[in-house]
Amino acid sequence: ASMLDITDLHVAVGEDAKPIIKGLNLSVPAGEVHAIMGPNGSGKSTLSYALTGRDGYDVTGGIGFDGADISEMEPEERAARGLYLSFQYPVEIPGVPTLTFLKEALNAQRKARGEDEMSAPDFMKHVRERAAKLDVSADMLKRPVNVGFSGGEKKRMEILQALVLEPRFLILDETDSGLDIDALKVVAEGVNALRSPDRGMLVITHYQRLLDYITPDRVHVMADGRIVASGGPELARELEAEGYDKYVRAA
Ligand code: ADP
Ligand code: MG
Ligand code: MG
């Protein structure tokens, strides 16, 4: 089995249990980066929430992760196993310095795995090495989480958190919010830095442009709650040239 193995996934949301994901199959082996692209409303974000176990999503079907079916597990247990969804909408946390936030997030994860806390000096080294890669300054680490950060700074913070936590499997959902080229490059650098033979990644994106900086192993097109086409990186270029029309009509 692949690291992430989704079989016949159905997800319904809301009071009327509206079906959004309608029989989705997807396998992401360890060591690979897969991209999911698709028009607005095709269910990309719903998929990422269903994978992490967010409340309010009625899920049936299998979600295999590292050989275990996690589809009934609490979000905390999935996170402890190393499944991580990057923040889409950065939360501001007044009064909590970014460094403190990162330390607590890392130690909570270690605790859930039965590991010891990281010592203060080891943690500082761990963060500084990763902050340097992303041009995150010591000053920014002292400021309260995301408070008064520019869009680009929030994006760097989001990626820094992923680099600090070193998840086994990273899901990045880049929404329709207009990322500029610099922010796209920050995301791409983070993804490329996290590439590893024992880590898998799912990069959900509206932007073919992002895939100019990240070369995915596979590209999947999602329409109306299903994967309707899969291919190599050339599929992203085809979508850039031709758009989603033919997939939307076929779905
Ligand atoms: P995407 O990320 O591909 O743009 P979403 O997963 O955000 O798509 O949304 C897919 C569809 O599900 C949309 O039609 C959206 O309106 C609907 N949807 C998402 N969340 C909810 C919800 N909580 N209640 C009702 N409908 C929802
Ligand atoms: Mg959307
Ligand atoms: Mg979305």
What is the topology?
Blueprint: E1 4-13, E2 18-28, E3 33-37, H1 44-52, E4 57-65, E5 68-69, H2 75-80, E6 83-85, E7 93-97, H3 98-112, H4 120-133, H5 138-142, E8 144-145, H6 151-165, E9 169-174, H7 181-194, E10 200-205, E11 218-223, E12 226-231, H8 234-242, H9 245-250
Parallel strand pairs: 3-10, 3-11, 6-9, 9-10
Antiparallel strand pairs: 1-2, 1-4, 4-5, 7-8, 11-12
Helix pairs in contact: 6-7
This protein binds adenosine-5'-diphosphate (ADP) and magnesium ion (2 copies).
What does this structure look like?
By secondary structure, this protein is an alpha/beta fold. The protein has one domain (4-250): P-loop containing nucleotide triphosphate hydrolases (Rossmann fold, 3-Layer(aba) Sandwich). Helix content is 37%, strand content 28%. It has helices at 44-52, 75-80, 98-112, 120-133, 138-142, 151-165, 181-194, 234-242, 245-250; strands at 4-13, 18-28, 33-37, 57-65, 68-69, 83-85, 93-97, 144-145, 169-174, 200-205, 218-223, 226-231. The longest helix has 15 residues, at 98-112. The chain is globular. The two termini are 28 Å apart. 33% of the residues are buried. The model has no long low-confidence stretch (mean pLDDT 92). The structure holds adenosine-5'-diphosphate (ADP) and magnesium ion (MG) (2 copies).
